[in-house]
Amino acid sequence: MTTISAPERSSARALLSAVRPRQWVKNVLILVAPGAAGVLTHDNIIGHVIVAFISFCAVSSAMYLFNDLRDIEADRQHPKKQYRAIASGQVSPRLARSAMLTLLVVGFALPFSLAGPGGLLLILGIYVVITFLYTLWVKELAVIELVSVASGFFLRAYAGAVACHIYVSSWFLVVVSFGAFFLVVGKRSSELAHVGAGATRKVLAQYTAEFLHSALTLSATVAVTGYCLWAFDTSSTGLSSIRHHVIPIRLTVIPVVLAILFIMRTSESSDGQSPEDLLLKDRTVQALLVVWAGLLALGIYA
Protein backbone atom coordinates (compact mmCIF):
# COMPACT_ATOMS: atom_id res chain seq x y z
CA MET A 1 0.00 0.00 0.00
CA THR A 2 1.36 3.40 -0.97
CA THR A 3 2.02 5.75 1.91
CA ILE A 4 1.60 9.49 1.69
CA SER A 5 4.77 11.56 1.74
CA ALA A 6 5.03 13.94 4.68
CA PRO A 7 7.65 16.24 6.20
CA GLU A 8 10.46 14.11 7.62
CA ARG A 9 10.63 13.79 11.40
CA SER A 10 11.98 11.29 13.88
CA SER A 11 9.86 8.39 15.11
CA ALA A 12 9.67 9.96 18.55
CA ARG A 13 8.44 13.30 17.18
CA ALA A 14 5.98 11.56 14.88
CA LEU A 15 4.57 9.53 17.77
CA LEU A 16 4.36 12.64 19.92
CA SER A 17 2.33 14.39 17.23
CA ALA A 18 0.05 11.33 16.97
CA VAL A 19 -0.97 11.58 20.64
CA ARG A 20 -1.96 15.23 19.99
CA PRO A 21 -0.42 17.06 22.98
CA ARG A 22 -2.12 20.29 21.86
CA GLN A 23 -5.42 18.71 22.85
CA TRP A 24 -4.23 18.34 26.45
CA VAL A 25 -5.24 21.95 27.02
CA LYS A 26 -8.82 20.64 27.26
CA ASN A 27 -7.83 18.85 30.46
CA VAL A 28 -7.39 22.21 32.20
CA LEU A 29 -11.16 21.87 32.78
CA ILE A 30 -10.21 19.51 35.62
CA LEU A 31 -9.15 22.61 37.58
CA VAL A 32 -12.57 24.29 37.41
CA ALA A 33 -14.45 22.42 40.16
CA PRO A 34 -11.70 22.52 42.84
CA GLY A 35 -10.85 26.08 41.80
CA ALA A 36 -14.46 27.26 42.19
CA ALA A 37 -14.73 25.41 45.50
CA GLY A 38 -11.78 27.40 46.88
CA VAL A 39 -9.66 24.34 47.68
CA LEU A 40 -7.22 24.40 44.77
CA THR A 41 -4.36 25.63 46.99
CA HIS A 42 -4.68 22.72 49.42
CA ASP A 43 -1.73 20.31 49.18
CA ASN A 44 -3.79 17.12 48.96
CA ILE A 45 -6.09 18.67 46.35
CA ILE A 46 -3.18 19.65 44.12
CA GLY A 47 -1.98 16.04 44.13
CA HIS A 48 -5.43 14.77 43.17
CA VAL A 49 -5.73 17.35 40.37
CA ILE A 50 -2.31 16.42 38.94
CA VAL A 51 -3.20 12.72 38.92
CA ALA A 52 -6.54 13.39 37.24
CA PHE A 53 -4.89 15.67 34.67
CA ILE A 54 -2.18 13.18 33.72
CA SER A 55 -4.68 10.30 33.65
CA PHE A 56 -6.94 12.18 31.25
CA CYS A 57 -3.97 13.19 29.07
CA ALA A 58 -2.92 9.54 28.79
CA VAL A 59 -6.40 8.13 28.17
CA SER A 60 -7.46 10.84 25.71
CA SER A 61 -4.20 10.41 23.75
CA ALA A 62 -4.83 6.67 23.60
CA MET A 63 -8.25 7.32 22.10
CA TYR A 64 -6.76 9.73 19.53
CA LEU A 65 -4.46 6.90 18.45
CA PHE A 66 -7.46 4.55 18.23
CA ASN A 67 -9.30 7.09 16.08
CA ASP A 68 -6.35 7.47 13.70
CA LEU A 69 -5.91 3.71 13.44
CA ARG A 70 -9.59 3.30 12.65
CA ASP A 71 -9.60 6.09 10.03
CA ILE A 72 -6.21 5.44 8.47
CA GLU A 73 -7.49 4.87 4.94
CA ALA A 74 -9.94 7.78 5.02
CA ASP A 75 -7.22 10.07 6.40
CA ARG A 76 -4.93 9.17 3.47
CA GLN A 77 -7.54 10.59 1.10
CA HIS A 78 -7.93 13.82 3.09
CA PRO A 79 -5.96 16.93 2.00
CA LYS A 80 -4.77 17.68 5.56
CA LYS A 81 -5.24 14.50 7.57
CA GLN A 82 -3.02 12.58 5.13
CA TYR A 83 -0.03 14.13 6.92
CA ARG A 84 -0.97 12.68 10.29
CA ALA A 85 1.76 10.43 11.66
CA ILE A 86 -0.12 7.14 11.24
CA ALA A 87 -1.74 7.91 7.89
CA SER A 88 1.58 9.06 6.41
CA GLY A 89 3.38 5.91 7.57
CA GLN A 90 5.76 7.66 9.97
CA VAL A 91 4.21 5.71 12.86
CA SER A 92 3.41 2.09 12.14
CA PRO A 93 0.03 0.65 13.19
CA ARG A 94 1.88 -1.80 15.43
CA LEU A 95 3.71 0.99 17.27
CA ALA A 96 0.49 3.00 17.51
CA ARG A 97 -1.40 0.06 19.04
CA SER A 98 1.41 -0.55 21.55
CA ALA A 99 1.45 3.12 22.53
CA MET A 100 -2.35 3.15 22.83
CA LEU A 101 -2.39 0.17 25.19
CA THR A 102 0.47 1.61 27.25
CA LEU A 103 -1.30 4.96 27.63
CA LEU A 104 -4.53 3.23 28.67
CA VAL A 105 -2.71 1.22 31.33
CA VAL A 106 -0.97 4.35 32.65
CA GLY A 107 -4.19 6.37 32.61
CA PHE A 108 -6.17 3.78 34.56
CA ALA A 109 -3.31 2.86 36.92
CA LEU A 110 -2.56 6.38 38.19
CA PRO A 111 -5.90 6.88 40.04
CA PHE A 112 -5.00 3.97 42.33
CA SER A 113 -2.43 6.28 43.92
CA LEU A 114 -5.36 8.28 45.35
CA ALA A 115 -7.61 7.52 48.28
CA GLY A 116 -10.97 6.48 46.86
CA PRO A 117 -10.10 6.24 43.14
CA GLY A 118 -13.48 4.76 42.15
CA GLY A 119 -15.08 7.99 40.97
CA LEU A 120 -12.19 8.98 38.71
CA LEU A 121 -11.91 5.46 37.30
CA LEU A 122 -15.63 5.51 36.49
CA ILE A 123 -15.31 8.86 34.69
CA LEU A 124 -12.32 7.61 32.69
CA GLY A 125 -14.20 4.41 31.81
CA ILE A 126 -17.26 6.34 30.60
CA TYR A 127 -15.01 8.60 28.52
CA VAL A 128 -13.35 5.61 26.84
CA VAL A 129 -16.68 3.92 26.07
CA ILE A 130 -18.24 7.08 24.62
CA THR A 131 -15.13 7.87 22.55
CA PHE A 132 -14.92 4.26 21.33
CA LEU A 133 -18.57 4.33 20.20
CA TYR A 134 -18.10 7.77 18.65
CA THR A 135 -15.17 6.59 16.54
CA LEU A 136 -16.91 3.42 15.39
CA TRP A 137 -20.45 4.65 14.84
CA VAL A 138 -21.85 7.69 16.64
CA LYS A 139 -19.88 10.29 14.65
CA GLU A 140 -22.23 9.68 11.71
CA LEU A 141 -25.41 10.29 13.76
CA ALA A 142 -26.62 13.89 13.67
CA VAL A 143 -27.23 15.56 17.07
CA ILE A 144 -26.09 12.43 18.95
CA GLU A 145 -22.55 13.11 17.81
CA LEU A 146 -22.79 16.65 19.18
CA VAL A 147 -23.76 15.34 22.59
CA SER A 148 -21.04 12.69 22.41
CA VAL A 149 -18.27 15.22 21.75
CA ALA A 150 -19.65 17.63 24.35
CA SER A 151 -19.62 14.85 26.94
CA GLY A 152 -15.83 14.80 26.71
CA PHE A 153 -15.66 18.37 28.04
CA PHE A 154 -18.24 17.61 30.73
CA LEU A 155 -16.42 14.49 31.91
CA ARG A 156 -13.14 16.38 32.19
CA ALA A 157 -14.74 19.09 34.34
CA TYR A 158 -16.56 16.55 36.50
CA ALA A 159 -13.38 14.47 36.86
CA GLY A 160 -11.85 17.33 38.84
CA ALA A 161 -14.75 17.17 41.29
CA VAL A 162 -14.79 13.40 41.77
CA ALA A 163 -10.99 13.13 41.99
CA CYS A 164 -10.96 15.71 44.79
CA HIS A 165 -14.17 14.39 46.40
CA ILE A 166 -15.93 17.75 46.02
CA TYR A 167 -19.70 18.18 46.04
CA VAL A 168 -20.55 20.56 43.20
CA SER A 169 -23.53 22.82 42.55
CA SER A 170 -26.24 21.70 40.16
CA TRP A 171 -25.68 25.00 38.35
CA PHE A 172 -22.04 24.03 37.80
CA LEU A 173 -23.21 20.89 36.02
CA VAL A 174 -25.67 22.89 33.90
CA VAL A 175 -23.00 25.43 32.91
CA VAL A 176 -20.43 22.78 32.02
CA SER A 177 -22.93 20.65 30.07
CA PHE A 178 -24.40 23.43 27.94
CA GLY A 179 -21.13 25.33 27.70
CA ALA A 180 -19.54 22.21 26.20
CA PHE A 181 -22.49 21.74 23.85
CA PHE A 182 -22.16 25.40 22.82
CA LEU A 183 -18.49 24.91 21.88
CA VAL A 184 -19.20 21.78 19.84
CA VAL A 185 -22.15 23.30 17.97
CA GLY A 186 -20.06 26.41 17.31
CA LYS A 187 -17.34 24.26 15.80
CA ARG A 188 -19.81 22.49 13.51
CA SER A 189 -21.30 25.85 12.51
CA SER A 190 -17.85 27.16 11.63
CA GLU A 191 -17.03 24.02 9.64
CA LEU A 192 -20.30 24.21 7.71
CA ALA A 193 -19.72 27.88 6.85
CA HIS A 194 -16.04 27.35 6.07
CA VAL A 195 -15.86 24.16 4.00
CA GLY A 196 -19.46 23.16 3.32
CA ALA A 197 -21.56 20.09 4.06
CA GLY A 198 -19.76 16.77 3.99
CA ALA A 199 -16.38 18.15 2.93
CA THR A 200 -14.55 17.14 6.11
CA ARG A 201 -17.28 15.34 8.10
CA LYS A 202 -20.05 13.29 6.55
CA VAL A 203 -22.41 14.26 9.36
CA LEU A 204 -22.26 17.93 8.30
CA ALA A 205 -24.49 17.05 5.35
CA GLN A 206 -27.27 16.33 7.87
CA TYR A 207 -27.16 19.84 9.33
CA THR A 208 -28.39 23.18 8.06
CA ALA A 209 -27.09 26.59 9.03
CA GLU A 210 -30.50 27.40 10.51
CA PHE A 211 -30.52 24.33 12.74
CA LEU A 212 -27.00 24.96 14.02
CA HIS A 213 -27.88 28.62 14.66
CA SER A 214 -30.88 27.54 16.75
CA ALA A 215 -28.81 24.96 18.65
CA LEU A 216 -26.08 27.53 19.26
CA THR A 217 -28.60 30.07 20.56
CA LEU A 218 -30.28 27.46 22.78
CA SER A 219 -27.04 26.23 24.33
CA ALA A 220 -25.72 29.79 24.82
CA THR A 221 -28.96 30.85 26.52
CA VAL A 222 -28.95 27.94 28.96
CA ALA A 223 -25.21 28.28 29.65
CA VAL A 224 -25.48 32.01 30.42
CA THR A 225 -28.62 31.56 32.53
CA GLY A 226 -27.02 28.69 34.44
CA TYR A 227 -23.85 30.68 35.05
CA CYS A 228 -25.79 33.69 36.31
CA LEU A 229 -27.74 31.49 38.73
CA TRP A 230 -24.51 29.83 39.90
CA ALA A 231 -22.75 33.19 40.31
CA PHE A 232 -25.65 34.65 42.33
CA ASP A 233 -26.29 31.46 44.33
CA THR A 234 -25.64 32.11 48.05
CA SER A 235 -25.85 28.46 49.13
CA SER A 236 -22.76 26.56 50.30
CA THR A 237 -22.01 25.37 46.76
CA GLY A 238 -22.86 28.68 45.05
CA LEU A 239 -20.20 31.11 43.93
CA SER A 240 -21.73 33.86 46.12
CA SER A 241 -21.56 31.78 49.28
CA ILE A 242 -20.74 33.47 52.58
CA ARG A 243 -17.10 32.37 52.26
CA HIS A 244 -16.53 34.42 49.08
CA HIS A 245 -16.33 38.08 48.09
CA VAL A 246 -19.57 38.66 46.21
CA ILE A 247 -18.83 41.70 44.04
CA PRO A 248 -15.91 40.35 41.91
CA ILE A 249 -17.68 37.00 41.55
CA ARG A 250 -20.86 38.56 40.24
CA LEU A 251 -18.84 40.76 37.89
CA THR A 252 -17.57 37.56 36.21
CA VAL A 253 -20.93 37.42 34.44
CA ILE A 254 -19.76 40.26 32.17
CA PRO A 255 -16.72 38.54 30.56
CA VAL A 256 -18.69 35.28 30.31
CA VAL A 257 -21.51 36.91 28.34
CA LEU A 258 -19.11 38.90 26.15
CA ALA A 259 -17.03 35.81 25.36
CA ILE A 260 -20.10 33.79 24.38
CA LEU A 261 -21.41 36.60 22.17
CA PHE A 262 -18.02 37.00 20.51
CA ILE A 263 -17.73 33.24 19.87
CA MET A 264 -21.26 33.14 18.45
CA ARG A 265 -20.57 36.00 16.07
CA THR A 266 -17.29 34.53 14.87
CA SER A 267 -18.52 30.93 14.59
CA GLU A 268 -21.38 31.90 12.31
CA SER A 269 -19.44 34.20 9.99
CA SER A 270 -18.34 32.76 6.64
CA ASP A 271 -14.65 33.25 7.45
CA GLY A 272 -14.95 32.54 11.15
CA GLN A 273 -12.85 30.26 13.31
CA SER A 274 -14.08 27.39 15.43
CA PRO A 275 -14.47 28.01 19.19
CA GLU A 276 -11.50 25.71 19.80
CA ASP A 277 -9.27 27.88 17.59
CA LEU A 278 -10.62 31.03 19.20
CA LEU A 279 -9.75 29.77 22.67
CA LEU A 280 -6.22 28.88 21.57
CA LYS A 281 -5.43 31.82 19.29
CA ASP A 282 -7.84 34.76 19.55
CA ARG A 283 -6.53 37.53 21.80
CA THR A 284 -9.99 38.96 22.55
CA VAL A 285 -11.40 35.66 23.81
CA GLN A 286 -8.20 34.93 25.73
CA ALA A 287 -8.32 38.37 27.37
CA LEU A 288 -11.93 37.80 28.43
CA LEU A 289 -10.96 34.43 29.90
CA VAL A 290 -8.11 36.05 31.84
CA VAL A 291 -10.47 38.73 33.20
CA TRP A 292 -13.00 36.04 34.18
CA ALA A 293 -10.35 33.90 35.90
CA GLY A 294 -8.89 36.95 37.66
CA LEU A 295 -12.24 38.12 39.02
CA LEU A 296 -13.14 34.59 40.10
CA ALA A 297 -9.81 34.11 41.86
CA LEU A 298 -10.19 37.50 43.56
CA GLY A 299 -13.64 36.59 44.81
CA ILE A 300 -12.75 33.12 46.04
CA TYR A 301 -9.12 33.36 47.22
CA ALA A 302 -8.49 37.02 48.11
Search tags:
mainly alpha, Tetracycline Repressor, domain 2, 13 helices, 0% strand, globular
Give a description of the structure:
By secondary structure, this protein is an all-alpha fold. The protein folds into 2 domains: 9-167, Tetracycline Repressor, domain 2 (Orthogonal Bundle); 169-302. Helix content is 66%, strand content 0%. It has helices at 11-18, 32-36, 43-70, 72-76, 93-109, 118-136, 144-163, 170-195, 209-232, 246-251, 253-267, 275-281, 283-301. The radius of gyration is 20 Å and the shape is globular.
Question: What is this structure's SSE topology?
Answer:
Elements: H1 11-18, H2 32-36, H3 43-70, H4 72-76, H5 93-109, H6 118-136, H7 144-163, H8 170-195, H9 209-232, H10 246-251, H11 253-267, H12 275-281, H13 283-301
Helix pairs in contact: 3-5, 3-6, 3-7, 6-7, 7-8, 8-9, 8-11, 9-11, 11-13
